[in-house]
């Protein structure tokens, strides 16, 4: 059932509830049901049991209702008793990626990258507080005037943030961020998130154990890209993932997911990302994957990349590949170990091999906008080279972003490293070698199966698109025309 139909059912339920009172039927339901028996059932069985009991009660004691009103009322009562009330239809809609409640009368959702207001509202502020209490109670947290900000997680994995008065002047504000399903590189390419040659190259980067940094703003798809790239990690490797909220869904068998823990009600027991990174180094990992670095754990992550844990991946908030370097430097300086900026920059230069930057266009499409690799490492500076960028045309009346993915040759040292690792390089990146197409096809069986074109045809399409693009549209973020610049 689509969201529109669910919202229509909610409207019918609201009309019926105004005559009967959802709270009345919920109270009658609790009087009728055997709670001990209910506790032994699974979630699906529990919901089915409550719907059956509620149907009997409404049929026996309720007013005359149409079939649609009766069904909607039963669902509303069960949602209030078991779930999150008016938010349940939104959580059931897979197209909704974010739910934003700004007080009881203003509910917004994000769908396809666009935010829109919907007609769903809470009956009162008390009902919204009850929903919030139900969420935070599941993680043994509380929200009140002494603790007006709370981060929590639903049993199904959604990340929840709550802030209430006096900090919020709009009343209780509830934000639920839904974790997108795991996408493969092929699916992201089909959604215009990247092109085929870039997907093949990034797969080679992962298998060749390059250290990758995935950067971008909030909501640009960093975690989704990290999850997609992790699919190319070989099955025999031991992987430790570290996150604030467990969003990654790795397909390998030997994966140890770690999740940080906030302090308890007394303010004790907090386990930070940095604690987990330090502990992961003692767990004999082949690779460490950190969902996001935000502070002093950045220095520990750089140390891990520099001490034999090659092929590790991490995400960071940044506005460009250059900004990602500056932000890593700033975050690493927040460690309790005070190091000179030059030393931290040396650590970054030694640890990072490539930076993948993502952006979200005005049309809501999330895509890779730039891939930069470390072309040279010197003590006083770091040289980045853009090997792929998305050059966008001006926005037209349809508000859709059009453009082309442009490619540049790989630095010789990086090309040599991939060659020694047995990885092919897509011809679109300007490196010709015997058997490159065959190596790429052999190493990317699943990836190539999703694209009907052969490796040579993909390269031809990519080059023809680049040739058709005006030269003045080329950009490299400063520096020389081949995309190389120094980050000091």
Write the layout of secondary structure elements.
Layout: H1 3-20, H2 22-32, H3 35-39, H4 43-61, H5 67-82, H6 88-92, E1 96-102, E2 107-111, E3 114-118, H7 125-137, E4 149-153, E5 159-163, E6 173-177, H8 185-190, H9 196-207, E7 212-216, H10 222-230, E8 239-243, E9 255-259, H11 273-280, E10 287-290, H12 297-305, E11 313-317, H13 321-332, H14 341-351, E12 354-360, E13 366-378, E14 381-392, E15 403-407, H15 412-420, H16 436-443, H17 445-449, H18 455-467, E16 484-487
Parallel strand pairs: 7-11, 7-12, 8-9, 8-10, 10-11
Antiparallel strand pairs: 1-2, 1-6, 2-3, 4-5, 5-6, 12-13, 13-14, 14-15, 14-16
Helix pairs in contact: 1-5, 2-4, 2-5, 4-5, 11-12, 12-13, 12-14, 13-14
Description:
With 488 residues, this protein is of the alpha/beta class. It folds into three domains: 1-82, no CATH class; 83-178, Beta-Lactamase, CATH 3.30.450.90; 185-487, P-loop containing nucleotide triphosphate hydrolases (Rossmann fold, 3-Layer(aba) Sandwich), CATH 3.40.50. Helices cover 39% and strands 20% of the residues. It contains 18 helices and 16 strands. The chain has helices at 3-20, 22-32, 35-39, 43-61, 67-82, 88-92, 125-137, 185-190, 196-207, 222-230, 273-280, 297-305, 321-332, 341-351, 412-420, 436-443, 445-449, 455-467, and strands at residues 96-102, 107-111, 114-118, 149-153, 159-163, 173-177, 212-216, 239-243, 255-259, 287-290, 313-317, 354-360, 366-378, 381-392, 403-407, 484-487. Helix 2 (22-32) packs across helix 5 (67-82) and helix 11 packs parallel to helix 12 (297-305). It starts with a helix and ends with a strand.
């Amino acid at each position: 059932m689509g969201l529109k139909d669910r919202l229509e059912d909610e409207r019918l339920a609201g009309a019926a509830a105004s005559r009967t009172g959802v709270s009345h039927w919920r109270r009658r339901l609790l009087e009728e049901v055997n709670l001990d028996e209910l506790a032994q059932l699974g979630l699906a069985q529990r919901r089915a049991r409550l719907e059956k009991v509620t149907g009997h009660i409404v049929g026996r004691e309720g007013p005359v209702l149409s079939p649609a009103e009766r069904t909607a009322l039963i669902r509303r009562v069960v949602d209030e008793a078991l779930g999150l009330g008016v938010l349940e239809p939104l959580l059931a809609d897979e197209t909704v990626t974010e739910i934003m409640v700004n007080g009881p009368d203003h509910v917004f959702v994000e769908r396809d990258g666009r935010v829109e207001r919907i007609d769903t509202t809470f009956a009162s502020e008390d009902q919204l507080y009850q929903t919030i209490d139900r969420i935070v109670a599941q993680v043994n947290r509380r929200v009140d005037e002494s603790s007006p900000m709370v981060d929590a997680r639903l049993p199904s994995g959604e990340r929840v943030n709550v802030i209430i008065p006096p900090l919020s002047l709009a009343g209780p504000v509830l934000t639920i961020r839904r974790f997108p399903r795991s996408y493969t590189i092929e699916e992201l390419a089909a959604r215009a998130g990247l092109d085929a040659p870039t997907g093949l190259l990034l797969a080679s980067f992962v298998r060749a154990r390059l250290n990758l940094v995935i950067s971008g703003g909030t909501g640009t798809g960093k975690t989704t890209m990290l999850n997609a790239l992790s699919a190319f990690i070989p099955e025999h490797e031991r992987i430790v993932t570290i996150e604030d909220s467990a969003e990654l869904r790795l397909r390998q068998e030997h994966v140890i997911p770690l999740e940080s823990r906030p302090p308890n009600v007394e303010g004790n027991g907090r386990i930070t990302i940095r604690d987990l990174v330090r502990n992961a180094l003692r767990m004999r990992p082949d690779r460490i994957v950190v969902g996001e670095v935000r502070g002093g754990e950045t220095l520990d992550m750089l140390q891990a990349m520099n001490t034999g844990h090659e092929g590790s991946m991490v995400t960071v908030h940044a506005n460009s590949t250059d900004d990602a370097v500056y932000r890593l430097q700033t975050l690493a300086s927040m460690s309790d170990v005070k190091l000179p900026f030059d030393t931290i920059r040396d650590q970054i230069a030694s640890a990072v091999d490539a930076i993948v930057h993502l952006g979200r266009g005005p049309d809501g499409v999330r895509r890779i906008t730039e891939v930069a690799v470390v072309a040279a490492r010197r003590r006083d500076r770091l040289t980045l080279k853009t090997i792929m960028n998305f050059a966008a045309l001006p926005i037209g009346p349809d508000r859709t972003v059009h453009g082309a993915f442009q490619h540049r040759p790989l630095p010789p040292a990086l090309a040599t490293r991939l060659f020694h690792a047995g990885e092919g390089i897509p011809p679109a990146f300007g490196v010709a070698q015997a058997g490159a197409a065959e190596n790429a096809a052999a190493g990317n069986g699943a990836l190539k199966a999703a694209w009907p074109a052969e490796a040579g045809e993909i390269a031809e399409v990519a080059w023809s698109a680049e040739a058709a693009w005006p030269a003045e549209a080329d950009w490299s973020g400063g520096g020389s025309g081949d995309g190389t610049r120094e980050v000091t």
